[in-house]
Amino acid sequence: MIFTPDTSNSRGIEWLMSRPQAALWVGTGVGKTVTALTAFEGLRVLGEIQTALVIAPIRVSTMSWPDEVAKWGHTKHLKVKNLRDADLTTVRRGDADIFTTNYEQLPKLAEQLFPREPFPFDLIVFDESTMVKNPKGTRAKSLLPHLKKFTHRWGLTGTPWPNDLQEVFMQVKVLDDGQRLGKSFYQFRERYFKATDYMKYNWVVKDDTAKNEILYKISDLAITITREEARVVEEPKEADVFVDLPLLVQEEYESLEKDFLLQLDAGTVTVSAASSGGIVNKLRQYAGGSVYDEKGKARLTHHEKTHALANLLQTISGNALVACDYHHFIADIRASLPGIRYLSPDQTKREQIGLLREWNDGGVKVLLSHPASIGHGLNLQSGGNTVIWYSPPWSRELYDQLNARLSRRGQKNPVTIYRIVARNTVDVDALQTLNTRGKNQRAYSHLLAEIRKRSAKSL
Q1: Which terminus of the chain has fewer Cβ atoms in its 10 Å neighbourhood, N or C?
Q2: pLDDT tops 70 at residue 4
Q3: Considering the entire predicted model, what is its pTM?
């Protein structure tokens, strides 16, 4: 298959090729990988760059980039190697045009490869750049002293600000060395954000002036292309499946919510939480059907969600991807639905890749996974068109990224996203938070586009 860019891809290709430092923030599933590949190949033809280092989540680096190169006909011109499979000698010999690695390998690469001369790379690509959004993280810090060696730097993601605008700071800094938003995250936060609590745990943007200033400063670096603008992906339908907890279970839930303490099994087991974050986790576990006690053992509280999942799987057509973010929930599901296939962290990488390829071939009716294991960059649209969230997550990034594994370019059927929600529980709060963060993401993207248009007109 030969890639023919549409309008949105052409904009992205032109953006990357026209500036050495660029952020391509394209709606999930629209095609940022093939856009970046095409731009890279164009710059190679022009003689501006020769070799790229792509840093991505592990399955994206081992599966998605090689698959995309082969899928769109780039294999005639580009050779890809993964640094997990190739020693550093192959880099120095120039055995590939694109070398991929995962974010966990960055400290090792910074120590063993980056100090070497001559430096073997021209371009560094941060695929799913939110992986470096943590200003305290070792991933970005290990890279910062070496980034000026790259003549070109690109950041790619579909969710640049999944929770709030603070998250763009490090994604921008790894591209421009702090030229636009400053070198210190804490000075950036103090200037544009305000704390909402006495302990300064939670921060929000101060006002519209601060929001506009942040977006104006990065408007020459970052381009946003939403899924609505691209019009190559039909927006998925979202549907909530509500369950009611049995009366006794609801009373126990309310007791835990009120007193931070709950006794199970006729008073023999105590479940407690010492902080607000801890109580929210306990409440979410309880609403989901089982909760960890103080000894770390999962205690069953109800079967309502497993029953709802079983009923839902009987009514849908096609194959389904089930997302569940507590391991004891996964155990509950597998016990209730023994035939379900599970992408397990205990599997070897070969076994995981084999299962994902079997899914894409249509051979897996139901695939169960933790969202963090499958949520970034993978092309799973060939295997099914239904996503089921066992509980609505708090993280908008995980939510959007996992949904986009099916709702993306190449999907041939309408996609439906189901959320199983325990009524009158913290599940409802998580659902409201998801919806609010989704609205904010879209608003930031549209505002950045508008600021860039106004800036262009003023020139």
Answers
A1: C
A2: no
A3: 0.80
Instruction: Give residue-wise pLDDT tens across range 342-395.
Output: 998 888 888 888 999 999 999 999 999 998 887 676 788 889 999 999 999 998
Q: Mark whether 221 and 327 lie in a shared domain.
A: no
- The residue type at 253: Y
* Closest C-alpha to 107, from 44, 55, 41: 55
Domain that holds residue 322: 237-243+303-437
Tally of domains within the chain: 2
- In DSSP notation, 205-226 reads E--HHHHHHHHHHTTTTEEEE-
Place of tokens 């087991």: 269
- Read off the amino acid at residue 383: G
CB 166 within 8 A of CB 191: no
Upstream peptide bond of 118 is cis (omega within 30 degrees of 0) = yes
Q: Say yes or no: 311 and 198 in one domain.
A: no
Q: What is residue 459's predicted lDDT score, i.e. its pLDDT? A: 44
Q: What is the mean pLDDT of residues 102-108?
A: 86
Same domain, 309 and 228: no
Measuring CA to CA, how many Å separate 408 from each of 290, 372, 387, 403? 34, 18, 13, 9
